[in-house]
Structure formats: structure tokens, C-alpha cells
Design brief:
The protein is mainly alpha-helical. It contains 2 helices and no strands. It starts with a helix and ends with a helix.
Length: about 60
């Protein structure tokens, strides 16, 4: 069950990263870009916690 949550988090992280890099803002960061960067950071943090818990469990 834990591996499924890690896979789901990785998929969401890939989607969020792709959505951020698809936008083409050149000079300034809009609110949507800020939220995308924030979502990527949160998902990466969740992924790290899940991986550390999996390593600690084994």
C-alpha cells in the first residue's frame, strides 16, 4: 500500500512539474507560477517523507 502512495505522489509531481515548465512567463512570476512552484515543493517534501519512512521501516 505504501508503494502505491509513493507512485501516486511521483505522478502528481511529474504533472505539476510539467505544468510549470509548460507555462512561458519570461520576466516576472505570476500568482499561478508561484502556486505551481509551491505545489512542486510540497509534493517533493511529501515524497521525501514517504521515502524516508519506507527506508526507516525496512
Amino acid at each position: 500500500m505504501k508503494n502505491k502512495s509513493i507512485i501516486l505522489t511521483v505522478i502528481l509531481l511529474i504533472i505539476a512539474s510539467g505544468n510549470y515548465f509548460r507555462s512561458n512567463s519570461l520576466s516576472n512570476i505570476r500568482n499561478v507560477d508561484f502556486l505551481s512552484i509551491f505545489a512542486i515543493g510540497v509534493l517533493f517534501g511529501v515524497l521525501l517523507v514517504q521515502i524516508f519512512q519506507l527506508i526507516k521501516k525496512n
